[in-house]
Amino acid sequence: MSRKVFLSFLGANNYKECVYTTEGKESRVVKYVQNAVIDLLASDFDVCYIFCTEKAYDTHFASLQAESNKKLDVVQIPEGFSESEIWTIFSSVFDKLEVGDEILYDITHSFRSLPMLGITLLQYAKFLKHIRVRGIYYGVFETLGPSYDIDNRFPDPKDRKVPLLNLTAFSLIQDWTIAANNFIKFGNALLMRELTKEKLTPILASSQGTNKEAVLLQKLATRLQDFSEELRTNRGKMLIEAYSAVNAKEIIDQIASFTLLPPFEPIISYVKATIEPFEANSLNNILLAAQWCIDKELPQQGFTQLQEGIITILCDKISLDYTKEINRNFVSSYLSVRFSKPEEEWRGELSNDTYKPYLHLLDQINNIRELVAIYDLISKKRNDINHGGFTESAKHSSFMNDLKKYFHEFKQILNLEY
Q1: Is 393 a residue whose pLDDT tops 90?
Q2: How confident is the model at residue 69 (pLDDT cuts 50, 70, 90)?
Q3: pTM to 2 decimal places
Q4: How many CB atoms lie within 10 A of CB 418?
Q5: 260 vs 29, 30, 354, CA distance in Å?
Q6: CB of 52 closer than 8 Å to CB of 44
Q7: Cβ–Cβ under 8 Å, residues 242 and 226
Q8: How far lies 153's CA from each of 143, 156, 216, in Å?
């Protein structure tokens, strides 16, 4: 079972008693913010690590522990005056974390570079130890004014109300940035889907599904995941219909009516821009899907999209239903043997009298021989990938270059643009 872990740094300054407030709750009068955070947010935690220098330990730790309602585990760290000392601090914190820990991090008394180091360390630990960040908090003691004047202005510590700022969104933004980058650069929305499930499920549960913003974000992640899987698994009909992409765009437009954290808006807009060209029930989506595979370095899917796309476009040009397998088999046979075998050797749909009018229509398409030639090259590349490289000798580095080349030539042959 995963642990709940509180992390905080203790400085050597002259701290004053006050009351910390967050989410409509107030702490008791405390001298140390750590105890306020623990009381308000981490009273059920398994372990509380306090990182402090030798000076901070000598000055404050005994008093901090005496004030606390929890047992505190001290970890002594260097001052952090050099790069090597900063890395020592980094390792000291990281080494205390265990796989799956749930972390609450107080940065109030993190000095110099420690706040940045802490945020970076949490991201690092998310990857290597699969931790979860429950919260990041900062006590804004400076709202009371200059330290030297606090006793005069607020002689009673109960009147010193200090807000605890919830900065957890900074960690969440890092996660969303990585997830959006995975989708935009690699065409994979799985991390975005996992993020919304992990972060939004508690919100939906507490609001019984009425938090519209959370519901929409969850739907968006689902649609983007559907869209990315349709491309990764070459679902041609679905890509032409483009329900997932179009619905995702509609959801993003709805999300735009909510007040998101400012950094989230460009991320969502950037995601929308990548799917913007896809339209409902458009054969143009075939070209967009092929280009997507090129942009995302997906050669296997790209060659499949291109080969099947040629068949689909030719079916459409001669008014054959491209969703029927028999029609696709006819066009595929045409492209494979029309100009390479004598008619007496034709088999299947190509030899069927029913398709003769369509055969003549294909013959009349401009540059049909060039299209047949490029189809043959694409088919060989697709077969090479699908047979695991055992039947051909092409190097892995050739596939993306050839995919780009053949896609460009295909568009030129049929004078296609998007």
Answers
A1: no
A2: very high
A3: 0.81
A4: 13
A5: 34, 34, 59
A6: no
A7: no
A8: 12, 9, 47
Q: Which amino acid is at 310?
A: I
Nearest to 268 by CA among 194, 201, 231, 213: 213
Tokens standing for 21?
A: 């407030």
- H or E element that contains 217: helix 212-232
Q: Give me the residue label for tokens 């009147």.
A: 159
DSSP state of 45: -
Q: Are strands 25-26 and 19-22 parallel, antiparallel or unpaired?
A: antiparallel
User: 3-state class of 153 per DSSP?
Assistant: helix
What is the per-residue pLDDT across 268-306, written as a single tens digit (0 to 9) for each? 889 999 999 999 999 999 999 999 999 999 999 999 999
What is the pLDDT at residue 204?
47
* Residue 199 φ/ψ, nearest 5 degrees: -85, -30
Closest C-alpha among 262, 251, 246, 92 to residue 176: 262
- Tell me how far apart the 2 most distant CA atoms of the chain are, in Å: 106
Sign of CA dihedral 38, 27, 41, 95: negative
Judged by DSSP in three states, 411 sits in helix
User: For the chain, first and last CA: distance in Å?
Assistant: 53
User: What CA–CA distances, in Å, run from 285 to 15, 182, 219, 231, 322?
Assistant: 63, 21, 22, 11, 14
Number of Cβ within 10 Å of residue 127's Cβ equals 9
CA distance 50 to 57: 10
